[in-house]
Amino acid sequence: MVTPLYQLKAEFFKTLGHPARIRVLELLAEREQAVGELLAEVGIEAASLSQQLAVLRKANLVATRREGSNVYYRLTSPDVAELLRVARGILSGLLQGQADLLADLRATGRK
To answer: What distance lies between CA 38 and its chain's CA centroid?
Structure first.
């Protein structure tokens, strides 16, 4: 039986459903980074970062390469960075709409 596309999309978005994973992807959208660099930027314990990176690897969103004792991560597709950019735009629009509504409410409350 073939898995419906909407179900695959739901699983994909579940993979993105953790703040640490989103932060890792944002950092990797800028450039390839070593685990130590990610650890300093994401601000979680090494074991937790390792778990989150494993989830991203399993979903084929990131790939690794080893250089000496360092492991470097990179996005597997520029589309991941584009998805993050689009999400930022959507959220900016939503937040702007809420800010506009709040301003209207405050203005109406003063009358």
So the answer is: 13
For residues 14 and 18, give the distance between their C-alpha atoms in angstroms, rounded to a whole number: 8
Distance (Å, whole) CA 77 – CA 21: 16
Residue type, 60: N
**pLDDT tens, residue by residue, 62-78:** 999 999 999 999 999 99
Q: Residue 110: what pLDDT?
A: 63
Q: Taking a C-beta distance cutoff of 8 angstroms, is the pair 23, 42 a contact?
A: yes
78 vs 101: CA distance, rounded Å: 35
Question: Using an 8 Å Cβ cutoff, are 24 and 38 in contact?
Answer: yes
**Number of neighbouring beta carbons within 10 Å of residue 22:** 15
What is the spatial distance between Cα 4 and Cα 54, in angstroms, rounded to a whole number? 25
pTM of the model: 0.84
Kindly give, in sequence order, each residue whose CB lies less than 8 Å from that of residue 14, ignoring residues fewer than 6 positions away: none
